[in-house]
Amino acid sequence: MFFGTTEQQVIAVSAFALLTWLSLFRKKKFTTPPGPPGWPLIGNMFDLPKKESWKAYLEWSNRYNSDVVSMKLAGTQFIILNSAKAIQDLLIKRSNIYSDRPYSTMIIDLYVFVGVLFLSLLINLVFSIETTWLIVFMNNNDRWKIHRHLFKREFDSPEASVVNKKHALQASRRLINRLLTSEDHEGELRLAAVDSILSITYGITPTSFEHPFIKVTGEVNEIFADVARGGYLVDVFPALKNLPRWLPGLRFHEIGDRGRGLARDVVQGPYKEIQRQVSKGTAGPSVASRFISSVQDGETMQPGEIDAMRNVLANAYLAGSDTSICALYNFVLAMALHPEVQKKAQQGLDDVLRGERLPDYGDFDRIPYLAAVVNEVFRWHPITPFAVYHVTTQDDSYNGYHIPKGAIIVPNAWAMLHDESLFGPETGKFNPDRFVREDGTINYELSAVDMAFGYGRRACPGRVIARDTIWMMAASMLTAYDIVNPTDLDGNKLTADSPLEFTNAMISFSPPFKVSLKRRIPESLIRDGMPRE
User: What is the CATH number of domain 32-528?
Assistant: First the structure.
């Protein structure tokens, strides 16, 4: 029973009602996006999908009727964006607070080479030589801006573009020549991708994977694979960094020690080699030789510019090799699974080349369907289905949901690139016609496919080189060969309707497969197209 005057009772009831309303309001205001409920301490660890996470998170959106969903792992909030609109609204329109990268104890505190920002199969990898040197993982600060400026200046200038395209063309010619005799199609595709980016960046033309600059990046990729299979608890529980090295099971110290040496080799090895070649006058044209020549000629440099440029070169080579390999695999698989698409692209090439020569970049605008094929390769299965994670630098709200400062933002690129409101029906199917207008010209207005390369100010600076390279590799292979008879490694035939499970990793590769190549132009035409070194 409540005692007091009527006036006091009214005041008390009113105050209670006000507090209840405020409580409900605050609860609504600070409600994070929906998602699985999770468990104390470990959060949603047991909800992490074991395969093709991008599809599972899109299903969460359907289940909770929200294109933005969330989960929590060891106290960290993860916000997953499953639509183009959410990605546009947050990562692009609000890029001033959504352009930083997640913090990693493995990197920042331990100064090691490889770290993990997330557990299990939602993993991002970070490199560091006493500080993060990969542009993609730098925070949105002045240091990142300097690196990005140098990348654009040195790789995207008109002068650089001419040299870059020449190297990509020559790497493509070397590829189709090797394919005349090699049965290791997978190995040749890998070598071609590395050949192109290593030539563009440093002017070095590898003839096998025994080249030292390829071997060191191969070791780096081994670390990638090792990290991608699990996670480092030190990033979940930072206090573990203080544990002594001799305790069993603490691999992060060992990985860090090994990684530091590899990082130095990746960043400094090729740069020093081109320095020597420039000094001797033997260096070929490349981004590195052009920059080093300007340094040796006494051109004025900004403080720290040389070190930053050394990082930029290593970024271009290391990131470009793996992603280009992945894109080439996807292209070859798509052509083998869709012979009708392959024939249509080859017809466009034949109409222009007339069986008299190999393609070059001057043919780009004359073969619009091939540009559509390349667009569809990047859309059909994005190389990085979750792009690279972002992190919020202040509290924010979206569609009535609270997004806390420090939340890790996971853009589901796969979901966005399979949005039927953007790309038309049956987005699960490989169909380049979605990029072609009725008059046969390429639909450049369908620019949402650019989001396969990242978002806003954090979009991949190497996307132009990537597209140019894959276009030339595709044009050269389709001119020279029919890509037929796709099978899995057990010899079972693959078709367009075969279920394909792509690897659940930051860079997502197709399942292993085999194809046959049938030459469709004279061998002499392929031989004559070899670059004269």
Answer: 1.10.630.10
